[in-house]
Specification:
Blueprint lengths: L2 E7 L3 H12 L4 E4 L26 H4 L1 H10 L3 E3 L3 E5 L4 E6 L2 E12 L3 E3 L12 E3 H11 L6 E6 L1 H12 L4 E6 L3 H7 L3 H4 L3 H16 L4 E2 L3 E6 L6 E5 L3 E5 L3 E5 L1 E3 L2 H5 L4 E4 L4 E4 L12 E3 L8 H19 L5 H28 L4 H4 L7 E3 L4 E2 H9 L5 H8 L12 H12 L3 H4 L13 H4 L1 E5 L5 E5 L1
Parallel strand pairs: 1-2, 1-6, 2-3, 6-19, 6-22, 8-15, 9-10, 9-15, 10-11
Antiparallel strand pairs: 4-5, 5-6, 7-16, 12-13, 13-14, 17-18, 20-21, 22-23
Helix pairs in contact: 1-3, 1-10, 5-8, 6-11, 10-11
Length: about 475
Amino acid sequence: MMIYDCAIVGGGPAGMNAAILLAEAGVRVVIMDRAARAGGQVYRSAADSVLPRPEALGLDYTEGVALITAFESCAATHIAAADVWHIGEDGTILYSLNGTTRQLQAREILLCPGAIERPMPIPGWTLPGVMTAGAAQVMLKSDAVVAEKAIFAGSGPLLYLIVAQYLRLGVKVAGVIDTTPKANYLAALPGGAAALRSWPMLRKGLNLMREISNSGVPVFKAATNLSVLGQIAATGLAFECNGAQEIQAETVFLHHGVIPHSNMSRSLGLEHLWNEAQQCWQVKTDSWGQSSIPHIAVAGDGAGIIGADGAQCAGRLAACNILYRLNVFSLNERDQRARKDQSKLIGMAPFRAFIDRLYQPVEELRLPKDPETLVCRCEEQRLKDLRAGYEAGARDPNALKSLTRCGMGPCQGRQCGPIVSSLLARWRQEPEEVVGYYRLRSPQRLLSLAEFSRFRYDDETGTEAEVSG
């Protein structure tokens, strides 16, 4: 079996930067990514865009082409369209590729799973026609597909970015419903002076807001009590903003920030902690991305939301430490090589704190209020079903999972997990860290028996071998 010095899971900004540095140092590194080409969500299809004017997506997007080119030119082994579904503590990695399970081994493992969008369980959020702002970006970047006259609702930088991208491409938008409370602006104000040190980033956000405001698209600020209209499919959005409001549309894009994608780190049993500022769980790491298991590191937004620029720094820092652990770098060389990225992350911290406070998610949009609202989409468990399970004695996420099947579906709790932890915290009147989270296990995706009955691996000569069961 092929044994690598380091295996990287995830080909976004953190993973690509780590792979480049590791390959330059001469170690045997492999990077596995679900996409056909590296880039992650932020640089999806940047190097081979199907858009007639990819520059309309902004400089932050087109600058990704240089990184993808540098990555594809390095000596790292890149396994594209690989879906990793198991990582063992001994360094064994199992993944699906072309309908076949494959296996490899690594001395060091770097997880770069990125982020997922926070669930926004308002009434009607599971109706056909309701998607996330991230889904709007995926469709736009991958296939140049857009939704005309859609509604965008929620808060956070990504919401404004995708609306601006739509407008630059001439796509009509029905309305923007901004749910950021006025109180958040006041609470974030004390950190504004420190955030000014990152003026280019602040200016970027202000320009997006100005661009949308000048377009003539209706923008409603500090909106509350959102609910999707429609019985069998979305027909619009109802909300309150200086009185009751309704906008008609067949497509509604929701966004309430992003959270680390932690299912893989959870299945490995890595320690996690509750990030109060970002109102989400994240894996516990040191400044090098080192987790509670010595040979496993986590970098990028998968270890805590820091944005694409921060993820690139974090990927290189994790790679420096891995090279030190592999005895390629001395302690002094590791620290010298890391200094620039460490300094950059320190400089970004005030801006990150400002953004976290400004767009801190409100409970009204994090947790459902209507008893009929679905919480677990896979198993169709409503808020009232989970409350009944709690009243029947299921006081922690795993007990509630056993009693109601909430979290047992194909997504393995990606959507309902954050909601369940916070619901139980509210019902028990205890912090999320006390309540805990689902206990997750491999496999991380659904597998057919046909695939599971066989696997392939590369031997030391690089020759592919197959074992059938």
